[in-house]
Amino acid sequence: IAAPIWKEILTRAHKSIENPPTIFPVPEGIVQPQVSLLSGELATERTPVELRRADIFLAEHAPKLPDPACVHVTVDKVTGLLASDSCPEEAQEEGSFLILTSVLAERFPDWQKSLDVWGQQQVALYKATPDHSGSLLPLPVAPTESCDPALTPGRLEKPELTVLYPRDSGIATYPSLKPAIDFSVGSTVREVEYLIDGKSVEKVTAEPWDPPLRVPRSVKEEGSHTLEVRLTDEYYNVVKESVQFRFEKDSDAPSVELTSPVDGASIPSGADITLRATAKDGGGIKVVQFFLNERLLSNDAQEPYELNYPGDLRPGDYTLSVKATDFAGNTGEDAVELMVVP
Fold it and tell me: What is the pTM of this model?
């Protein structure tokens, strides 16, 4: 109640002072340490920046202990438990975690038990949403148990990988290539990364796992090159395979076939038409185009190459064609004749 009154009094009093000081010397015996908002003790490098605050104390009453509420530990990304020596390095991550401690834990041990139960409930809420909005915790609670990969089915089954194209000491198309790999995993694939001469050119997180690769301009056509493939499974087990190869200019036309409708087919006027095609190329397919006579109907950059054309054709003879273009600009074509009857 008195604060607004004193503010008004002091504001008026300062108006009568010429050149009032704006900087005041800090009295002797006053300190301003960074304090953890979690514990009230001295903030450490483990205390998140957003949970630190400078505060003012008499030197004899200032906090002396480092923040006991935060620890920096290495955990297993799969289980969330403490990382053990048997956890793959790729499955380990460091982070700040919260230590929940009752202020009277020794005197009232049941309080600590209840706090631990509450903490686990809050951890579940913390992990439930990306922004952790459902939890009251500013950080996840630090795990106390170590992970044992053997307890997770399939985790000890290491993935296997073979690069089928390009072959070791073989050749590949330039300026793009379509790698081919074969693999087996005990779980699922998390990511496949492709590197040419140590430069990452593609990271794939969904099928197809061996997409066309555009060669970076920094990688010259001449000389010997290395393609490295890194496959990571669901449990962060990583397998790597590399091959040495040389580039050659891609001058081969893509292989393309219009599989539907068949050549010489006839359909009634007003019927819809489904166009389907297959296309393959050693350097990958850039685009597949469908044509009705000379009119472009569609551009497809990914499989399946299909088009549903509405039934608006009048009776007569028509030519349906498909054109595939690779990343080097080479083209391949196929065509069929279609008869529309009344």
Answer: 0.66
